[in-house]
Amino acid sequence: MLITCPYCGPRDVSEFAYQGDGNRNRPDPASTDLVAWNAYVYDRLNPAGAHNEIWQHAGGCRAHLAVVRDTLTHEILSVRFAREKGAPAHGRRKSGAKA
Ligand SMILES: [Zn+2]
């Protein structure tokens, strides 16, 4: 599987470290909403298809990347720097929403 880093170009997945689900929205740190914190810590999507993920190019430029990967085919559908603002390439779940 190749991931095209926006800075380095196409690289083998062995250079990257999976950093987690890209759909999570962290509640305000001062929040005492236990339902929202429970959802943030424990709830994960498990789609059969496009999925937002965070990867780090650990063996390269060390940039964090927002990747959309098809979980059925492992095809990489899009890659951008995670620090870039804007809507994810695939729908994002609202905090606390059930999948
Ligand atoms: Zn890179």
Largest β-sheet summary: 4 strands, antiparallel
Q: Can you give the mean pLDDT?
A: 88
Q: Work out the number of β strands.
A: 6
Q: Can you write the helix and strand succession as a string?
A: EEEHEEE
Strand content: 25-35%
Helix proportion range: under 10%
Return the CATH class of the domain at 1-24 and 46-87: Alpha Beta
Q: Show unreliable segments.
A: 93-99
Number of helices, where a helix is a run of at least 4 consecutive DSSP H or I residues: 1
What CATH calls the topology of the domain at 1-24 and 46-87 is Folate-binding fold
Query: Rg, please?
Result: 14 Å
Coarse shape: globular
First and last CA, distance: 28 Å
The molecules bound to the chains, other than polymers, are: zinc ion
Helix/strand/pairing class, anyone?
mainly beta
How is the largest sheet built, in terms of strand order?
A: 3-4-5-6
CATH fourth-tier homologous superfamily of the domain at 1-24 and 46-87? Folate-binding superfamily
CATH architecture of the domain at 1-24 and 46-87, by name, is 2-Layer Sandwich
